[in-house]
Amino acid sequence: MNMHRGVGLAAFDKEQLSKRFAELSSELSKTQVDNLQSQLTQFRTALSHFAATHRDSIRSDPAFRHAFQQMCSSIGVDPLAGPRKGGWWAEMLGMGDWQHELGVQIVDVCVSTRERNGGVIEMGELVRMVSKLRGVESGVITEEDVIRSIKTLQPLGAGYEVLDVGGGKKMVRSVVKELDADQAVILAEAQVEGGWIVEAILENRRGWTGERARAALENMLLRDGLCWLDSQDEHYGQAYWIPSAMRWDE
Amino acid sequence: MALSTHTTPSGFLLPSIHSAPPFFTEQPNQSTHAHLTEKWMRLILAYARHKRLFVLRVEDAEVPGGEWDEILRNERINRRILPPYLSSLMAIMVAKNLAVYEPSKQTRAVLLYWRLPEEWADVLHSWATATGQLNTILTFYEISDPPIQSPLSGIPIPLLRRAITILSRSNRAQIIGVADGEGVRFFVG
């Protein structure tokens, strides 16, 4: 069995089990196969029981939820996988609703901030705003929860995607237009300066030519609506500000 | 380095976007322009309501020290809205019926409708009724500058006249010529 790729717990269905063991039996003795089968059944029962007992904790405590996830993936079980819709989460924990609700709220925040940031939002801000929507304190909904939820949004084809822009920062893109590589670099540099960016930074820190920097910034400004212009910048006259890289206290 | 709200000396709460330097630049991207302009218009009307300011002039962006400094300038980030942008905002507000050029046939000053003339008409009539001044003749001056602060205090005469005209259409007021100006008589509504 491939231990690197997560296998849905549903794969341990009885029919599947029989089939799998039929394949294995030629290699292992019958005793070994019987042992394995009974242990796996026991394991499945135990895991289901555990999940049912701790359902509330898994829902409400992010540290516990994280540990549970870690445990699942370390034994090669991906709660999102499986033939049933929503995967094992939905089946065992009734987490399908929770997951779905979170997905809806993520879309809500992305759509409502799109005018301001052009469809790209910083992960921290997204987590903060979703937490606010749910009326929970920070820490209850984690970045991990949001990333997992965004994975389930992908079939929507609406372009929801998590982008790693370096420096430990992630952005969530919610518009169909993809960020090109230059834009990703600009986002990363803007993060460092709290949203502010000028051609000089790209030339000095990234070795870009003036034309390349100017073209990339002008496209973000005029064509894509991903940044704003400041024509009163003290040193450079014109500077660009990227709202998704700016930190807002609402 | 978070952008936060800020309360002005006059007690007005500025939104966090007012702390963003680019907010003070007229944006070239159309949808960004629409988005930020919408915020400016709301801000201007809210501030006008807060300080009971009725008139906004391009001059307020040209010369410091006026009544609008708390909004049109942000000393903390060394930014101010430039006259061309303010002029553009005024034009958009007029187009959306949130303001009128007053006097007409010029574009340097607007009368702001943080309350529509129709709403002013109701406020005016309620005030006349509540203060027992129905059927008496009042001068415009007595209404806009009463001895005791009233909901109509400071209302510019052109706006007062508009409100009275609205009332006259439903027979709740009648404009009367008086010795040194204009007067009005209110009737039961």
TrEMBL record, chain A:
Cited SUPFAM superfamilies: Winged helix' DNA-binding domain
Entry-linked Pfam families: EAP30 (PF04157)
GO biological-process terms attached to the record: protein transport to vacuole involved in ubiquitin-dependent protein catabolic process via the multivesicular body sorting pathway
One Gene Ontology cellular component annotation held by this UniProt entry: ESCRT II complex
Highest taxon in the source lineage: Eukaryota
Signal peptide bounds: none
Coiled coil: none
Family of this protein: Belongs to the SNF8 family.
Alphabetized PANTHER family for the sequence: EAP30 SUBUNIT OF ELL COMPLEX, VACUOLAR-SORTING PROTEIN SNF8
Protein name as catalogued: EAP30/Vps36 family-domain-containing protein
Organism whose genome encodes this protein: Suillus plorans
Phylogenetic placement of the source organism: Eukaryota, Fungi, Dikarya, Basidiomycota, Agaricomycotina
UniProtKB/TrEMBL annotation, chain B:
Keywords, sorted A to Z: Protein transport, Transport
GO biological process: protein transport to vacuole involved in ubiquitin-dependent protein catabolic process via the multivesicular body sorting pathway
Record SUPFAM superfamilies: Winged helix' DNA-binding domain
Keyword Hydrolase: no
InterPro entries xrefs: ESCRT-II_cplx_Vps25-sub, ESCRT-II_cplx_Vps25-sub_N, WH-like_DNA-bd_sf, WH_DNA-bd_sf
Cited PANTHER family: VACUOLAR PROTEIN SORTING-ASSOCIATED PROTEIN VPS25 (PTHR13149), VACUOLAR PROTEIN-SORTING-ASSOCIATED PROTEIN 25 (PTHR13149:SF0)
Listed name of the protein: ESCRT-II complex vps25 subunit
Organism expressing this protein natively: Suillus plorans
